[in-house]
Amino acid sequence: MRALSLFLVLSSVAEAVSIGQRRKIVQSFNVRRTKSSDSTPLQVGNGNFAFGADVTGLQTFKPYAIMSTWGWHNFSLPTTPGQTSVDDYTGLQMWTHGRLVPYEVPNPAQNDISNWLRENPHRLNLARVGFDFGRKDVTEDDLRHKSQELDMWTGRLSSSFVYDGSPVRVETWADPNSDTVAVNVNSKLLRRSLGLFFDFPYPDKEKFNAPFVGHFNLTSKHSTALDQQSPNTATIKHTLDDTTYYTHISWSGHGNINGPTNGTHRYTFTSAQTNNVRLTITFSSAPNPEPTPYPRVTAASRAWWNSFWARGAFIDLTSVHDPRAHDLQKRIILSQYLTTINSASSYPPQESGLVNNGWHGKFHLEMTLWHTLPFARWNHADLVRRSQPATYEQILPAALSRAQAQGYAKGARWGKMTDPQTGRSAPGDINALLIWQQPHPLYFAEVEWRAATAKRGRRGSSGSAAEETLARWDAVVTATADFMASYAWWNASTGVFDLGPPMYPVSENTDPNATRNAAFELAYWRFGLDVAVRWKERMGRPVPGEWVTVRDGLAPLPMADGTYAVYEGIEGMWTSNETTNDHPAMAGIYGLLPPPASGPPLDMDALKKTARKIKELWALDFSYGWDFAMLAMNSLRLGDPEQAVEYLLHPIFQFDDAGYPVGGSRVPTPYFPNSASLLVATAMMAGGWDGDEGKTGHWPKSWEKHVRVEGFLPAL
Ligand SMILES: *[C@@H]1O[C@H](CO)[C@@H](O)[C@H](O)[C@H]1NC(C)=O
Ligand SMILES: *[C@@H]1O[C@H](CO)[C@@H](O)[C@H](O)[C@H]1NC(C)=O
Ligand SMILES: *[C@@H]1O[C@H](CO)[C@@H](O)[C@H](O)[C@H]1NC(C)=O
Ligand SMILES: *[C@@H]1O[C@H](CO)[C@@H](O)[C@H](O)[C@H]1NC(C)=O
Ligand SMILES: *[C@@H]1O[C@H](CO)[C@@H](O)[C@H](O)[C@H]1NC(C)=O
Ligand SMILES: *[C@@H]1O[C@H](CO)[C@@H](O)[C@H](O)[C@H]1NC(C)=O
């Protein structure tokens, strides 16, 4: 509370970053391309829907995706006897503290249904929309003077090129309020040969579909049908097994849609009597959605993006002389645009957002923390509310029955890799034994409580926002903490509560049967139970005794060689490259998490030595990118903002020309937890944290006087 009131005082004297200045900064990073990228599109979108374009502003030469949060598909179930139904799947039992517990892992005796459950449902690429030049052999090289600009201030993608001596100008927009892309084309060629094509793919079983999703040559596996309803509208119905959805196309002036071309699902739009055509293309699972006229899409897009940039928190590094500040500013701006389009959805996003598919388009609940936290930290509560706590409420029944089937006394065990349709945990050894996703709802709840009470202070209002927050999260908070208390296991010989075995720690690379008391998970259990206890106290309700008993009896954080260790009893902590690999989660106990509010304090010398050892010995070239942001946050709390900036600009932590986070050696591009984590770390640089004595910023010395920030609350 002390830190909060300090913040409120400081924020009233902090210099605002004017709308004009924000606009100048945002637009200075507008993306410009003169050819299509082989790995990333330029996108317009709204968080639940996005359209990926090549250099033509459509998908003419590169079939980048059009994806949504609702477009999913199942392949038919296996026909193998005994594996023809989801209910046939049993998973496997594993010894867990002297009893056999069923886990959702692949069962070798049930390979077909295990695989089916992992691969289904999978996310669909809805369609491809491109220019039809009236002949088949046109390539990108046949276009001259190609140029495009993505204006992040309005959400407009402008593209132009010359074909056959004639200029073509294209604008591409997405509607913030529906799954609609709007396209404006200006060209004399429209009177001659230029048209637009629409094509429809069928999905495949690959875990990663990147950079493109689906196949356009599996035409016999699915069907399409054209219904031209009026001279200005047409609907194409696409049926893939049990999935059906509709593409509604409206246009200005005269036009016609024909197709499909023999043996394909390709339709062609032509408009012979004009130099200008405006189309809106709406995707929906319902046959007749209300069409959104072109001017409404463009006006809504401008208004939405203007307000996004004007109302959000802001960091202005333009007066800092260090060239690194420019790179960091660029990453900050582009990451905000891209995470909003790709991750601000009604369900947690997949790691590749709406660009392409990873893990079949499913989402990982442990990554939800990275994906969603930036919106909370950058003052976009409306975007957090899209999925929180609704997603947890929706999958609560599945999580409660998982915990019950596993014989735990109480609570909800959150799965890992899942989808919005079934809430199942996809069969997988790691999926079933990872536990650090469990306390996430408590982190979200606490951050939201923070925002609600800070506002109350400023407005001096009744506190109803705080009460509403307490009530809204209470069921999820309770079920989450109940499971955490049930899961911790009383080890009578050591007299402490153990976590695991079996378990996978954050780094997912240890022997689960030997992994006990991983450092980050223990710290996170304490943090989570502290939040849950406070939650009940704030509500004036009794605190379940077992929450306190478990919290106060948790095993101590494991140490090795004067540092924090991955888990208790790990061998060769700093001498084997097996143990200095993957996510360095020990940096999270003082980076992502605040110091403990209960129990023994952290050992500052050990934290510093751990940070030094990670810097010297960790195999960072094999890290997933959000490790760099976690290490940066750890550096900040350890008082080393210089090192934090170095981590955030580390040569392995890469973003491409359009700001897409490069996947690196282990996952395809883009890998959005990188962008999100960069925003969480920079919010901490700008807003500080509780107990940092009200410092307004944590920047390298030479930056301090020149940075301007607005709208941040302190981190936990
Ligand atoms: C896929 O099948 C599951 C049942 O296993 C069902 O809940 C889900 O709605 C189906 N999704 C689609 C797109 O057919
Ligand atoms: C862990 O132990 C279970 C038996 O409970 C066994 O089936 C499994 O293969 C072991 N896992 C590893 C990675 O050794
Ligand atoms: C079908 O298209 C895919 C790309 O989507 C390609 O890899 C494959 O070779 C094509 N198959 C045939 C028979 O053309
Ligand atoms: C249409 O496609 C079928 C099979 O793909 C082919 O046999 C037939 O010749 C095609 N007809 C035309 C007019 O192209
Ligand atoms: C109790 O903890 C000790 C130390 O971590 C461990 O070696 C032992 O296996 C645990 N006991 C049981 C029954 O798991
Ligand atoms: C560990 O180091 C050895 C020797 O440098 C190397 O061959 C091996 O690939 C490394 N293992 C990992 C997991 O990085």
TrEMBL record:
Protein name, UniProt field: Six-hairpin glycosidase-like protein
GO biological process annotation, one example: carbohydrate metabolic process
Record's signal peptide: 1-16
Key word Ribosomal protein present: no
Keyword entries, A-Z: Glycosidase, Hydrolase, Signal
Keyword Hydrolase: yes
InterPro entries with a match to the protein in the record: 6-hairpin_glycosidase_sf, 6hp_glycosidase-like_sf
Molecular-function annotations in GO: hydrolase activity, acting on glycosyl bonds
